[in-house]
TrEMBL record:
It is a multi-pass membrane protein. This protein specifically catalyzes the removal of signal peptides from prolipoproteins. Pathway: Protein modification; lipoprotein biosynthesis (signal peptide cleavage). Keywords: Aspartyl protease, Cell inner membrane, Cell membrane, Hydrolase, Lipoprotein, Membrane, Protease, Transmembrane, Transmembrane helix. InterPro entries: Peptidase_A8 (IPR001872). This is Lipoprotein signal peptidase. One of its GO terms (molecular function) is aspartic-type endopeptidase activity. The keyword Transmembrane applies. It catalyses: Release of signal peptides from bacterial membrane prolipoproteins. Hydrolyzes -Xaa-Yaa-Zaa-|-(S,diacylglyceryl)Cys-, in which Xaa is hydrophobic (preferably Leu), and Yaa (Ala or Ser) and Zaa (Gly or Ala) have small, neutral side chains.
Length: 215
């Protein structure tokens, strides 16, 4: 059973990192290309959480990376524990997706600041993250240090947009676009994995021997 988990995780992780390396070395920051109506490849760098959320500057970034590493360790332990007790594919495969997604984004945070020569960095004076110009190269010149790399995002689905009528409270007169966050393969894998666990929870959290999966 574990072979399936590692295989799925490896395939997703490989696709995730391949897509990030391609975007990082072929797109300038904030460059976008429309693939088809409602879908664009749009390169942004995310120093924080999934879907462009960030918090706490450098401290928040270190804290988030440590949390992610701990979460990965817990997921691996959890998978190994319940795979020995004959957990079903409805549990193992979604967890494999979540594991791959977590590892994919941690790799960016840990190593991208070392691998690439350009990237988004934190400016102490401005107390904000600052981008860069031009194409980045994977030449190990480094734009930052260990644990300070930024996650590469590129999947953008601006399905529709409109202007709110001026009479609408708070948002009246503003422009709205759905769906605004830019994300990556790793984020998608985590979302799909969690969604599958919720949808198939009656089958996912019961082993083939009838034992209920719990922490």
């Amino acid at each position: 059973m574990l072979k399936k988990v590692w295989l799925v995780a490896f395939i997703v992780l490989f696709i995730d990192q391949l897509s990030k390396f391609y975007i990082k070395t072929n797109f300038e920051l904030h460059e976008s290309v429309e693939v088809f109506k409602g879908f664009q490849l749009a390169f942004v760098e995310n120093p924080g959480m999934a879907y462009g959320i960030e918090f706490g500057g450098l401290f928040g970034k270190h804290l988030l990376t440590i949390f992610r590493i701990g979460l990965i360790g817990f997921i691996i332990w959890f998978v190994m524990k319940w795979s020995r007790k004959k957990a079903s594919n409805f549990f193992l495969l979604p967890v494999a997706l979540i594991l791959a997604g977590a590892i994919g984004n941690v790799i960016d945070s840990l190593f991208y600041g070392i691998i690439f020569d350009k990237g988004t960095v934190y400016n102490d004076q401005l107390m904000s993250w600052v981008g860069y110009n031009g194409l980045a190269k994977a030449n190990f010149d480094g734009y930052s240090s260990f644990m300070l790399g930024c996650v590469v995002d590129m999947l953008y689905f601006p399905l529709f947009e409109f202007d709110w009528p001026t009479w609408v409270p708070i948002v009246g007169g503003t422009h709205y676009k759905f769906f605004q966050p830019v994300f990556n393969i790793a984020d998608s894998a985590i979302f799909i994995g969690i969604a599958c666990l919720l949808i198939f929870r009656k089958k996912a959290f019961v082993t083939k021997t009838g034992e209920h999966i719990h922490f």
